[in-house]
Design brief:
134 residues, alpha+beta, 31% helix
Length: 134
């Protein structure tokens, strides 16, 4: 059988996760992610999302999922409180279409403290109003 061309393949997204607390092994991270997704969305939801831990090193891990389910997988990952019997905290850092894209965000100081609602480089905050939209 010939492999599917890229246009017919299922699109994947990769989520970079920072692990705080005791750093578990990759197998424990995989089990925790799959249990969390299954407990929140059931077996049918987990089958649609295809969550898998594809890379982990030190206090970072990359979780792969089907495109369109990134927010659901990120919500399930943030619900994890124990991994391998040890208390941990998982925090979503970045989402990208490639593993290289999420790995570029490791150690980047621009990840924290950036405001979404700040539209200019001014010191104060500026929020969208109905006048800005029209």
């Amino acid at each position: 059988m010939r492999p599917l061309p890229p246009t017919l393949r299922e699109k994947k997204r990769y989520i970079l996760i920072k692990i705080t607390g005791c750093i578990p092994e990759q197998k424990d991270i995989y089990r925790s992610v799959s249990e969390s997704v299954t407990s929140l969305f059931g077996d049918a939801g987990a089958a649609k999302m295809h969550p898998a831990v594809v890379w982990s090193e030190k206090d970072y891990a990359v979780v792969r999922c089907t495109r369109g389910f990134e927010k659901s997988v990120a919500a399930a990952v943030s619900c994890i409180t124990k991994c391998g019997g040890v208390p941990v905290n998982f925090r979503t850092i970045n989402t990208s279409g490639t593993i290289r894209g999420v790995k570029t965000k490791i150690g980047n100081p621009e990840l924290t403290g950036k405001k979404v609602d700040n539209l200019s480089n001014e010191k104060g905050h500026r929020y969208l109003t109905s006048d800005d939209i029209l």
